[in-house]
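Morning run. Coffee first, then this:
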Amino acid sequence: MVDIHKTAIVDRRAELGEGVVVGPYAIIDGPAVIGAGTAVGPHAVLEGAVALGERCRVFSHAVLGTIPQDLKFEGEESDLTIGSGTTIREFVTINRGTKALGTTRVGNNCLLMAYSHVAHDCVLGDDVILANCATVAGHVEIGDFAFVGGLTAVHQFSRIGKYAYIGGMSRVSQDVIPYALTASDPTRVVGINVIGLQRRGFPPEVRAALKRAYHIIYREDLNTAQAVEKLEAELGQVAEARDVIDFLKRTERGILK
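And here it is:
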């Protein structure tokens, strides 16, 4: 059974799964697809082609799927896809994609805290956390289990690797390697996200390999190509180090120092 408050406005094209709840004054405007057990809170707005997975929670005044804040946008068809189990807190805004990618994607089991923003054509993996007022510009990629601290701004086309931890009030203008820990003022990589890795059950030998990878990249005065060559020779057999190597090979903006 679907529970739609009498003051909510729901487009007849919308598809609502079993157990969906739509709160007071919420607006669903367009061909949205909302998975079973998802709750859309009071005054929330879903606009355009928005797909929400199962068991999501959208809190009051969140605005999802509106057109990009991009002057190059010409009204082309695009969408927003959000995985299952994701929580979107108050006043979060997420724009749909442009013709560049055609979509904005947020993975499963993510937490987007109040006032955070995800711009057009971004791709967020699973279990990503954006703290309050984190702002992610267009075309950004964020890997699984990454954490972006409050009041942080992420520059367009930047990438944040899996399990990276971005400290609060940071300015991310280049790629952040997987498993890294950053600090602000100015924002820089200060080591490996050891506590996060311990909490996620990474064994000591993997953490040691990642610390060695960090040392090669940041302490041996090598350029990126030289660092990749040395990483492959020493740590290429470690899956997590392989993540770092593959990430470095794809970087276009350079990595955060």
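Residues 153 and 171 are 5 Å apart (CA to CA). Good start to the day.
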